[in-house]
């Protein structure tokens, strides 16, 4: 059995949520999902975090 890092486990969950399509993960539009920033299998940068906060603020 292989052990997944937390970020890789999140990526796997996002692929599952996207119907098994890894391409669809990049097109995810659920910005308020707590896993959104980690969906690509890497840690988000501070710039990505700020951009998401701004996008969520703009939606209000």
Topology:
Elements: H1 6-17, H2 22-25, H3 46-59
Give structural notes.
With 60 residues, this protein is mainly α. It is 50% helix and 0% strand. It is built from three helices and no strands.
Biggest β-sheet strands, sense, barrel? none
Structural class: mainly alpha
Can you give the helix content as a percent range? Answer: 40-55%
Tertiary shape: globular
Distance between the termini: 44 Å
Tally of structural domains: 1
Rounded Rg = 12 Å
Q: How many helices?
A: 3
Tally the beta strands: 0
| Average pLDDT score | 94
> Strand portion, in percent?
under 5%
Can you write the helix and strand succession as a string? HHH
Extract low-pLDDT stretches.
none
Short description:
With 60 residues, the chain is mainly α. The protein has helices spanning 6-17, 22-25, 46-59. It is globular and about 45 Å long.
Characteristics of this structure?
60 residues; mainly alpha; 3 helices
């Amino acid at each position: 059995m292989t052990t997944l890092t937390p970020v890789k486990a999140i990526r796997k969950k996002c692929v599952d949520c996207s119907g098994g399509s890894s391409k669809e993960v990049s097109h995810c539009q659920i910005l308020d999902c707590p896993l959104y920033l980690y969906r690509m299998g890497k840690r988000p940068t501070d710039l990505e975090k700020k951009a998401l906060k701004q996008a969520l603020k703009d939606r209000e």
